[in-house]
Predict the structure.
Amino acid sequence: MPVRLRPVADNEVASLVASIRDGYALSMVNDAGMGEEEARTKAERDFAMLVREGRPVAGQQLFIIEETETSERVGRVWLGERFPGERIGFLYDIEIEGRFRGRGLGREAMLLVEQEARRRGFVEIRLNVFGGNETARSLYRSLRYVEFAIGMRKRLS
């Protein structure tokens, strides 16, 4: 199933941003050991730097990943500048909807993200992935992404 990236329409922005923010908070609870309130507060604080008046700030771009022939939505992407003025892109979010997973669409979407990053003049893409998300980590490694900072912890009772 070939896919493409379509810029998010104005009427889709608010719900997409909310969904990404909520997913980020949930990931911090599930994969980073944060409490729900702490994760929600951090998500709000992080998003306050990236979203103003309900819209991503300049340098940020939201996309819908859709099936090429039918235009059916299969996922989403958030690509932008992490450090304005640098030629480094940052992949804030990528998700393939559950019913479409396991079909190679994440790989295809990542290749499209790389094309978009090149088009925007980026010479590198960075991203964060939680350590427990082995499926994503494996995909990124297979696409020659290199881990360069790894956090570790040990809970003491």
Notes: Helices lie at 13-32, 36-50, 105-119, 134-142. The chain has one domain: 3-142. Residues 1 and 103 are 8 Å apart (CA to CA).
